[in-house]
Prior knowledge:
By secondary structure, the protein is an alpha/beta fold. Helices cover 47% and strands 12% of the residues. The longest helix is centred in the middle third of the chain and has 19 residues, at 115-133.
Amino acid sequence: MEPIQKIEQSIVKKYRKEIWHRMIGGIKDYQLIMPGDKIAVCISGGKDSMLLAKCLQMLQRYTEIPFELEFLSMDPGYDELNRQMITDNAQRLGIPLTIFSSRIFEIVSNSGGNPCYLCARMRRGHLYAKAQELGCNKIALGHHFDDVIETTMMSMLYGAEIRTMMPKLPSTNFPGMEIIRPLYLVRERDILAWKRYNSLEFVRCGCPLSERTTVCEEQESGGSKRAMVKELIAGLRKDNPQVDINIFRSMHNVNLDTVLGYRQNGQTHSFLDGYPYGRTNAFLPDDKEKKEESPA
Length: 296
C-alpha cells in the first residue's frame, strides 16, 4: 500500500469515528461548506492544519457537494528546515500546496509590542488577502475541540466575559470572506494519535521569538495562559471525565433568564431591562443620605 493510501485509510477506517465522522458532523451541524464554495485551506505546517487539509481533500473527492479548494501556506520567515518540512509533509500527504512568503517575523521581532498578538493579526491579514486574490470566499483553519473549550475558559478567567471560538465567522475587513473551522468537534488527543500512528512529524513552532522557551505541540510550555488552562481542564477531568464536554455544551445552552447582562449587535443589555417589577429608584444615594440624617 502506498504511504498516501495508508494515511487516507487511517482517517476513514481506524479513526473514522474520532476524526472523519466528527469532522463531517461539524460541517453539517454548523453549515460550514455550501455548494459553490471556494475554500482556502490555511496550512501553518502543524499537525492540525495538515490533517485538516487532508480531510477536506478527501471530502471533496467523496462528496456530491461541489466545492473548490486552494491549499495555502504562508512563510512568515521560517528557517530553511521548517520550510522544507512543510514542503515534504505536503508531498507525503499528497497536498498540492502553494507557499508564499512574507516578512512578518522580522517586522514583529522589531515591533516592541505584543509579538504574538501582532503576528496573529498580520498572518490572518496576509492569508485573507491571498485567498481573496485567488477568488476564495472562505478560509478554513485547523482549530479543534480543545482550542474551543480552552478559549472559552480563558475568556472567563482572563477576559472577564463569556465568549467562545465560533465554528464560522464572517470577516469584518474583507467583505464576502468567512472563516470556517471544520475540525471543531475533533479532539486534540485523536489528532495526536493519528499523527503517531502514521509516524508523522510536523512543524512545532517556527517562531524565532519562541526559541527562548521549549515549545512542543504535545505538551506546551507551562508559561502561557493557554497551557495553564489546558492543565486546569485536565485536572478537572480527573474528577469528572465529562467536564470538557460540559464546557462545550454550556456554550450551546446559555440561559439568558439567569445572566446579569449580555452584549448583542454592539448593544449592552441588563437583566433589569426585562425584570417583572421594572427598574426602581427606591434606593438611590440621595435617598440613603436623607434616611441617615432623619431622626430615629
